[in-house]
Design brief:
Distance between the termini: 25 Å
Largest sheet: 3 strands, antiparallel
CATH architecture: Roll
Number of helices: 1
Number of strands: 6
Structural class: alpha+beta
CATH topology: SH3 type barrels
Shape: globular
Length: 78
């Protein structure tokens, strides 16, 4: 994924109204749900998500295998 498309996709998902949880999958299979638009900062192909408890997850356009516009577990658990 290019840096520009990474920024564009994440910004579009972050700005959906009403906001909807979405899932990011990284190389190696690690997945996390972005559960609040204010917990994600994106710039120049790099992002940081502040997970519950303030735990930062840094990722960039080269480390993402897919971004899904839905929660990882649609039944409600994460």
């Amino acid at each position: 994924m290019t840096a520009a498309s990474f920024d564009r996709v994440l910004q579009a998902l972050r700005e959906r109204r009403p906001f909807q949880v979405f899932t990011v999958e990284l190389i190696g299979g690690h997945r996390f749900e972005v559960d609040h638009p204010g917990a994600l900062v994106v710039r120049d192909g790099v992002a940081v998500f502040l997970a519950p408890g303030g735990y930062p997850i840094w990722f960039d356009h080269e480390s993402v295998t897919q971004i899904e516009g839905a929660p990882a577990n649609p039944s409600g658990g994460s």
